[in-house]
C-alpha cells in the first residue's frame, strides 16, 4: 500500500488492528494467519486458538504477532487468554465497530477475559444476559509504563428479532497501577477495589488521587434495537460515552454515536449492507469545570475530555493508536510515547455499504465527514480554532473464484482536510493491492 505526501489516507490504516502506521508512505506486509475453533469430542467443551504473524516492510520494519490467543468454552461460559480483537459487527462498515470506547483500530493488547460466549436465556425465550470480566496490561511504550486496564461489560436483551429485540448494556474501563516517570509506581492489587469503584485514594497516593478517583475510569452505555423481516434485518444502535458521574448521569446527553445497519439477507445481492452513522462528542458535560454542592462530594461537571487523562497521559491508546473510535485524534506523540488525543470534540456522519457485482466480484465503499474542534480549554473556548474539517473516502473491489481459496483485492482511498496535517488543508491519495490464499477452511 502507498499514500501521497508522506502518509496513508485514513481508511487505509484505520480499524486495521493497528497493523499499519499512517505515517508510512509505503508499506509491504506479509501476514500468516491461523485460527481454529473445535469441539472436544461429544462433550460440551470446545477450544479456540489463533495467531496473526505480520512482517512489515515500511519506513520502520517490524515483525510481530498482531494476534496470539487461546481459549476454552464450556456450554455458555468462556475463558480467553492472549491478544485478541473485538468481534466484528455491522458487516465491518461502522467507524468504530458500534462502540465508541472499544474499536478494532489498535493492535489487541494481552488480557484475560472470563464470561459468557453468547447471550444466555434466563427462564424465558425473551430475556437474555451477556457479559464478561477482563484484566489486561498495556505493555507498549507509553507515559505510565505497564498500565493495567480493567474492562467489565454487562448486557440485557429483551424480545426476538421477528417482533423487536432490544439490547441494553454498560461497559466500564479502568486504567490502574503502572509506573509514572515522576511519581514512581502507583498502588497495585492492594488498591484494586478503590480503582474499580472510582474511590479517592488515601494518604499514601499522590495528591491528585487523594482528591479525585484513583486511576482513569471511562466507559459507554450501549443500546440497540433490532427488527427482522424476510428480506431485511434493520438495527438501530447508540453508543453513549462517559468519563465520570456527569456522563453516567447523562449531563452530556448530546454526545452519542447513532447508527443504522440494514442487512438485506441475500447471499447474492448487488447491495448487501448499508451503515449510516451520526457522531457528536462536542458537549462533554459543558465547557467549564463546575464543582457541585458538598453533599455531592464536590463532583465536577464539564470538560470531560473523553479518553484523555491528566495522569495516565497516553490516554486510551495502545502502540500510539486509538483503542477507541479512530475519529479521536490525531494521537499526540512526544519523546516516542503517546500523549492522548489532540481533538476529542467532533461531529459528523459516515456512510458505508457493500455488495456483489457478480458471484466472484465484491465491492465496498466508505465515506466519512468530520468537523474537529480540539478540546475545551476551560475558558469557554476550544483548543483548535478554526475547526478542522476532514473527508475520507474508500472504494474496494475483491475478486474471489468459486473455490474461495484465493482473494485478490484492490483499494483506492482519498482524504481532503486539515485534521492530519496540523491544520493545513491537504489532499491525500492512496492505494492498496492484496493477495490472500486460504490453505484450509
Automatic annotation (TrEMBL):
Gene3D superfamilies: Capsule assembly protein Wzi (2.40.160.130). This is Capsule assembly protein Wzi. It comes from Draconibacterium sediminis.
